[in-house]
Request: fold
Amino acid sequence: MMNEVPTMIRNDVLHWFFLGFGLESPDGRDIGRSTNITQLWLNAKDKCFDCETKEVLDALYTLLREHAELAKFVPVGGGFQSVSFERVRNTSGWTDFLMTGYFNIKVLPEGRVHFQRLSEQLRRELPSPERPTNPIGFVAPPPTR
Reply:
């Protein structure tokens, strides 16, 4: 676990973590990976650094919509309908969306590119023992010479 992040800000490291977490969709479906705020927070503490739930919430809020879609599936007429975080992002109830129940993190094409860029930046800035791992156990390969 790393204690300090040299040039990358903590928010960037959390974005990297969320994107890696979302890319590890265990069933390969196109709806993203399901989680709740507690599970995500505990994983972030384990894989990145000690943080508070509020810091995880703030980082989710600032995660660009072009990088990942946050959505919930709510029951509607015998089926389920996707409700996007974008519907509540700019309202006073945005934290309720993330704090209540489960939501999915679906990484979009620009998010995959951003994840790769952040992975490269982490690899350059952190020595191997301090480098965080993402939830799929990926540790950035050692720099090429």
